[in-house]
Amino acid sequence: MNSQSAKLAELRKANENSVARKRLTYLFDDGVFTEIGSLTREKDDISGVVTAYGFVEGNPVYAFSQDKDIKGGAVGTVHSAKIAKVYKLAAKTGAPVVGIHDSNGAFIDGGVEALTAYGEMLKWTSNISGVVPQISVIAGTCAGSAAMVACSADFVVMSKDAELFVTPPFDKEAGTAESAAKSGTASLVCDDDKSAVEEARKLVSLLPANNLSAVPMFEFDEPTSAYSKEAEKAVASIADAGSIIELSKDFGTASYTALGSVQGATVGFVATNKTDARLTADDCSKLARFVRTCDAYSIPVVTLIDSEGFECTSAAEIAGSVRNMAMLSSAYAEATTVKVSVITGKAYGPVFVALSGRSSNSDMILALPDAVITPMAPETAVEFLSHDKLKGAADVNAKRKELADEYAENEASAIIAAEKNAIDEVIEAAELRTTIVSALDVLSGKRVTRLSKKHSNMPL
Q1: Residue 337 and residue 444: Cα distance in Å, rounded?
Q2: Which residues contact 421 (CB under 8 A, 6 or more apart)?
Q3: CATH code of 280's domain
């Protein structure tokens, strides 16, 4: 071995046991990856980020892992150039990117160069958004402009002790993983950095390689759960056993979103009845974001609808709710991926229109026999349509309920909706998975041409 080869071997050995490299072993098959730019230096030391490529379930993936052991993982022009290189390669080859963030920020003496460095990373994460999947793992500290880079990914996974903030938080709860989960910033929170990277690996395996690739296919087991109205159980009765990953569970808590598979193919699941509460602004944001993510990569969306409507109790909420409802409706209407809607319970007014009506461009609208589909709550309909029948009743509340039940049975049933072509078919709960499998299969060749435009201008 000549002197240069010996020096190279020495340099590689000195750096091979870093935490940043260890985290990459959690991501790639058999812990094997190929590093890019391993010898780059910044500020008289090796750069504080490891960039690499490897395979996840046999498919190519690019990644970077910041190394906090080297000057706190400080970001400079070389650091940012290495990360930008990963994004550029991903754009050229159509492979996902996983970013593992753990840095105290830019070099203190970096000056305006630090701003340029972060700007370069933000430019490239934006350039490939919707082209290849991006997953951010917050394994330690992610501060300042880096937080914007991390949150530009499709999904953010945090370890429970990690920190995510733009400016140093003065509230001890701010910047925590718990806070990020409640605000909808973090899709998943895990016990430690290892489990966080492993969850990112699972997500990568469920996602297509890029926006032109088909969804992945897996070996699968039939679901073992029987149908139940509860959101998690309803989805579990449709999805392949053990395939479900719930996302953003602490944000928009009236609704449920998850990735899973149906007969081995990736599917996005939405349910509106995780609780009995009406859908809030957070729920609208959560569902719109999820549907748009699925649509970007042509992942079919199955929506289970059981909701009385949207929450709005004050003047401010009423105004804000209209905007949030419009945002959610726009996300569904604009999505060209396969969309199957199932009304499992209540679908009142705007909820039906936004999530399953003809305006949402659902490809297949199904309903269970006990579904109630109506422009307004049956109790409200009674007040408008049958108020005279309440006069003189010995028990007004009991009479109102009786009339509301009659209205739901005779005017708002699933069969009535099918007769009026508001839905496509009424099915039994026991037929739910079989029918959805069939619908997804027949719709797999869906092709849609949209009006030419730069992009829509939904009310974000």
Answers
A1: 9
A2: none
A3: 3.90.226.10
User: What pLDDT was estimated at residue 23?
Assistant: 97
Q: Which residue has the tokens 């109506």?
A: 374
What range defines the domain where residue 268 resides?
Answer: 231-371+413-442
Are 437 and 315 in the same domain?
yes
Same domain, 199 and 253: no
In this structure, are residues 403 and 385 in contact, taking their beta carbons and an 8 Å threshold?
no
Residue corresponding to tokens 């993982």: 73
Residue 263 and residue 175 in one domain: no
Residue 153 neighbours by CB under 8 Å, 6+ apart: 99, 125, 134, 135, 136
Distance between CA atoms of residues 390 and 376, nearest Å: 18
384 found inside a domain: no
Query: Are 73 and 102 a contacting pair, CB within 8 Å?
Result: yes
Distances (CA, A) of 82 to 85, 258, 318, 327: 5, 33, 47, 37
What one-character-per-residue DSSP string does 80-129 give? HHHHHHHHHHHHHHT--EEEEEEE--B-TT-THHHHHHHHHHHHHHHHTT
Residue 240 has pLDDT above 80, yes or no: yes
**pLDDT surpasses 80 at 15:** no
Which of residues 11 and 97 earns the better pLDDT score? 97
Nearest residue to 99 via CA among 84, 119, 115 = 84
Q: Which of these three, 159, 190, 206, is where a domain ends?
A: 206
With 60 as the cut, is the pLDDT of residue 16 above it? yes
59-87 average pLDDT score: 90
Does some domain include residue 460?
A: no
AA letter at 436 = I
Rounded to two decimals, the pTM is 0.93
Residue 295 is which amino acid?
D
